[in-house]
Amino acid sequence: MGLELFLDLLSQPCRAVYIFAKKNSIPFELRIVELLKGQHLSEDFALVNPVQKVPALKDGDFTLTESVAILLYLTRKFKVPDHWYPQELQARARVDEYLSWQHTNLRRHCLRVLWHKIMFPVVLGEPVSPEVLEITLAELDLTLQILEDNFLQDKAFLVGPHISLADLVAITELMHPVSAGCPIFDSRPKLAAWSQRVEAELGPPLFQEAHEVILKAGDFPPADPSLKQKLLPRVMAMIG
Amino acid sequence: MGLELYLDLLSQPCRAVYIFAKKIGVPFELRPVELLKGQHLQGFLPAGSPQVVPILKDGDFILHQSVAILIYLSCKYQAADHWYPADLQARARVHEYLGWHADFIRGTFGVSLWTQVLAPHIGAPVPEEKVTRNRAAVDSALQQLEEQVLGDKAFLAGPQLTLADLLALEELMQVVAMGRDVFAGRPRLAAWRGRVEAVLGADLCREAHGPILNVLAQAASKQLPQPPAEFRHWMLLRLSRIP
To answer: What CATH code would you report for B82-241?
Structure first.
């Protein structure tokens, strides 16, 4: 059995891993784990990954979770082009810096926007007050400002003139609020231009394919009540 | 000018950077930044850097985020392999830990300094439910850390000490400093801590942990500096973000 990737393209980190593997022609078996059907909570999946999270990678006996760990593993094992994660010390440090910052900043706020705007009220039937949603949207706005001012600035890509893991992780995160109907690029022409460059580098067909699921977030049906019971505690822990 | 590290030892990631730099013998200038005096907002950091600590300045190169700084130092100063192993799978385990750490430890373990010391210090109210929620989050993380993350291993990412252990230790020490012995009743974690500190060295740990371990006493004897007005505003915003 070759490399297996356990993914649900509903999840931002799964999209980044999927796009990266496809873009770099890394051979893998795709194992879809449908979060909204609770498949990550199944006993079968627990055997693969006791932490019951996606994305997960299985390479022979080696099982790995956490998207940044997976992306870096794939980068090194399959010797992808240098620009993704440069060898040069300072260039690489910039990618490390972004990947660290994003986990508790952009990722967090993009996730909360999708959940507060769509997933809680529509899918899980848990209403979210306008005040909470407003705060969540304001926090996202502040984070987008930091993304533009501290990271992108006047560069073509987040850490320099070439696309890197930073851009891939960022764009897949931003598609969460986009799918929730937030016009995040409308008042941010710099960010909009950057997103178009990233999409062009990744290739529109691959980008569209990876985002097919999340772009339908507005039409997700309500989850059945028993599933909701199972999902809710873990979601609450994740959203914080 | 050589390498500079802008640090406040009250901050968990700053301590991790400080201990690491000392331990592997990085020649650096320490630039103390007193967060409680709002110095990170008052031009004590290099021009162009975000208003956070830790910050590394190496010539014109300015870097933030403790993980990035630790990896940079590890590579530039050729730290012993165990810190950030070259082996593909061993290194992946370090990053796997850091991903989990970002979700369950970072943020969460820093809250009690704010609720127990900083909020009272500026006379800001703290809803009891935030304290309760945080305590539950800390408990849950400690249980996961001991039973699933550490398990039967000697260190968090494998058989040897890595950057992961250093970052984790400093977060746990933040809660310890607030008067809660997170190692009591958790024998595996206690043993792990002993192993980590044995590698780091008792003197270095004592030096790095001194300021944070002294904060409660300073607060009680009214010796904490009064934050300036603009920092109060920032502190209130930070408090409002506690879930």
So the answer is: 1.20.1050.10
